[in-house]
Amino acid sequence: MSDAGTAGPDAWWRYGVVYQVYPRSFQDGNGDGVGDLAGIRERLDYFVDLGVDAIWISPIFRSPMADFGYDVADYCDIDPLFGTLAQFDDLLADAHARGLKLILDFVPNHTSADHPWFIESRRSRDSALRDYYLWRDPTADGGPPNNWRSNFGGSAWTFDATSGQYYYHAFLPEQPDLNWCNPAVREQMFEVMRFWLRRGVDGFRVDVIWHLIKDQEFRDNPLNPDWGADHPESHALLPVYSADRPELMAIIRQMREVVSAFDTGQGSRILIGEIYLPLERLVAYYGPDETGALLGVHLPFNFLLIGAHWQAGSLAALINRYEGALPPGGWPNWVLGNHDKPRIASRVGERLAALAAMLLLTLRGTPTIYYGDEIGMSDVEIPRDRIRDPAELREPGKGQGRDPQRTPMQWSDCPGAGFTSGTPWLPLGPDYRHRNVENAVADPQSMLALHRELLSLRRREAALHAGEIEAVRADGDCLSFERIHGGSRLRVELNFGDQPVAAVAAPLGEVLLTTARFDGAAICDVAPAQAAVERPGPLQPFEGRVLRIG
Ligand code: TEU
Prior knowledge:
The chain is an alpha/beta fold. The protein folds into 3 domains: 12-112 and 182-215 and 244-452, Alpha-Beta Barrel (TIM Barrel); 116-168, Oligo-1,6-glucosidase, domain 2, CATH 3.90.400.10; 468-548, Immunoglobulin-like. The chain contains 15 helices and 18 strands. A hairpin with a 2-residue loop joins strand 14 and strand 15 (478-485). Helix 11 packs parallel to helix 14.
């Protein structure tokens, strides 16, 4: 069945805003110090008040948690740490009752080593499920089959003494890669997707989708000439043969068909692909066929802003390059951060984080907000004895550590930050007593207030959620662009510099929203946004604003 109709111009995911929940850290409902489904359910009104449309929850499936849920031992059950299937159904029903979509995190590239498939597969070379995973003989000297490195350091091959072969794992040894060339594996995994689609989920964020297929000959990866010893070891090689293989697109199309078959006509179920690749390769994952029909993932995650240089000129170039690379009909998307990357507030500082929020929520395309960024949370320094992330534990000090951006959501100034009545699994941010949702709700100048107003403006203005984007340019420190829909024309101006900037080519305009009003407690007497249509004044240092100019 084709979803050409519902993937069309009115599909919810084009105009909606996605919010990422890292479930361990969002809200603890039972006092064990770890977030859970009951906790997320308690907070559903928070998403509605914020003004987002969908929540994506990082993995909640049964798992030994070697990689905090990205190592799945049963794809069709909820881990007891997070709750039960019945609690999941309740959460989904309550989310839907509020008009919120729910996106699950599907982890198809690898299972946990504790998955019954792997336990059976490793039993012997003759196991009926041997070919579910990637087993290879040692080289003549007993070494691993090739030079591929694990993303978390060390060889990507682990020797299994029982059968005298190595198995491949792109991540931890506890995360063996599935063999997606095996049609039985594909069918099993599609059935997992159907299991959740039947329960009513609105789509999947697909973990490391570009990794699914490997070179059939398992050739050595070439050396990366730009690598230095202070970089993560896995970057020493270019992943030419271990990922982004040409055979992959056919499989992604099959995945898309699985999802499309559940389309109810009220808005399609969505596939968001997690993909870290150069832009030219990233956009291939929209999957255009010879006729131009897009048969790949609906949204290949665009992480360009995560690596961006936060300066007007390079941002304008980045936006134009991305827009220019999209295939016809490919819908853009933007991301400032996620559970794998340092938080935006820590990368750029608080003032620029407000500009970044305005940029994220006014660009053309679906934005994804990482939990906590809407209140300006920053990375939290984790004492050595409290480090939990396997990437950091395996390669200390290589910048791989992901605990700092995974600390508990700061809800209030109570002990436990309103996140837990117990001991939080990761330390709380030291600023939680003042930087928390309760305070932010009461403060019209807070980062949260800025997010709410941006989201509400975005929802009201078709130019922002559906319009074209034009004239993205940098004039000195000022980045500006226009969003157009029907007869309506909005202009976004962001001053990345510490000097005032005269309004660029100032047309008459009404300032709909300015970040100057949200500059924290330091600026209390800033005039409210002007209501009249007049020539706007200069942009203040680090001010961003949205104007109606037509
Ligand atoms: O991430 C894939 C990925 O590429 C990251 O591991 C990244 O390389 C690393 O975090 C450095 O920033 C996905 C998940 O998002 C991540 O949490 C999992 O650990 C990984 O896959 C394995 O499933």
